[in-house]
Write a structure and sequence with these properties.
Elements: H1 2-12, H2 15-22, H3 26-33, H4 36-59, H5 65-81, H6 90-99, H7 103-129, H8 139-158, H9 163-178
Amino acid sequence: MTPVFARNGFDAASLDDLGAAAGLNRPSLYAAFGDKTELFIGALRRYAERQTSDWISVLIRTEPIEERLTAVFRDAVAAYCAAPDRPGCLLRVIATAAASGHPRIAAAASAARRRQDDMFEAAFARCVAARELPGDPPPATRARLAMAVLDTLSLRARLGEPPDDLTSFAQDSLALVCRI
């Protein structure tokens, strides 16, 4: 169902399309997932948990933080550009678009975002503790900058920017995140 939401957005994803993706008719879809909002929230949570888990596995490695972030950004660009219609990130693009009219989606997206912020902040805090990075700016600021780069990569991918340009932008952004 994530591909249906990624391709169509929340509002334009029809129950028929979602049911076909799940292999269920409408009554079974409602019985299994509740309403469309709950179905989207479940898909968003699974997507964000998988994304966060993948990033944690990179961020806990021992190479310099700049190399770890390069790997995260490279993987993000590949994921954001993988589909022919280039949906970007379900959290950063689709959930953000739906959040203003759907408070439950806004709350779920905000919670997923906080977990990702915390993950990046913890990685930067470990770097500060290991004296790999100075404590100023603080780890929380560096985390928000890293997340802003991911946001921008997703948006630019959605708009059709070439992967090589996105990768170049990500590399240029590392100077701001890791060397200030």
